[in-house]
TrEMBL record:
Gene Ontology annotations of biological process type: chemotaxis; signal transduction
Domain CheW-like: 4-126
Protein name as it appears in the record: CheW-like domain-containing protein
Annotated organism of origin: Paraconexibacter sp. AEG42_29
InterPro entries: CheW-like_dom_sf (IPR036061), CheW-lke_dom (IPR002545)
Name of a matching Pfam family: CheW
Record field: transmembrane: none
Matching SUPFAM superfamilies: CheW-like
């Protein structure tokens, strides 16, 4: 398993593969969409010339914003505080929670600090299709 970018949320520690994270910026740079905004879309971010949709689907406090690139789609994700990068041992990823709670979770990782929920980056990108 590749390295993971770990970040806080009200649900505990979450993580995404470092391979899909293109950067971390301040959440204050998000421009809200006019009402009625699509469900789960917090607004837009302009890190350069393009405007990126920003998802708010993890219930985080929004201190940081992860810039992601998944399957050719670029978007932002509101995150709590990015805390560290962790390289899990081979075979360390456990199953995702059952039911609706696991819809965005690819698996779990036990660490010295507790359980980290590994977010499914493809399920996040699919949320963009549902929002449009």
């Amino acid at each position: 398993m590749s390295a993971l970018v770990c970040f806080t949320s009200p649900h505990g520690l979450l993580a995404l593969p470092v391979a899909v994270v293109r950067g971390v910026v301040d959440h204050l740079d998000v421009v809200p969409l006019p009402a009625p905004a699509p469900v789960g879309v917090a607004g837009l971010l302009r890190p350069g010339r393009e405007a990126l949709p920003v998802l708010d689907v993890l219930g985080t406090d929004g201190r940081h914003l992860l810039l992601l690139s998944v399957g050719g789609r670029r978007f932002g994700l509101i995150a709590g505080e990015v805390t560290h990068v962790q390289k899990p041992a081979a075979g360390a990823l456990g199953p995702s929670p059952a039911g609706p709670a696991g819809a965005l979770i690819a698996g779990t990782l036990r660490t010295a600090d507790g359980t980290v929920l590994v977010v499914d980056e493809h399920a996040l990108a699919a949320r963009l299709d549902r929002a449009s």
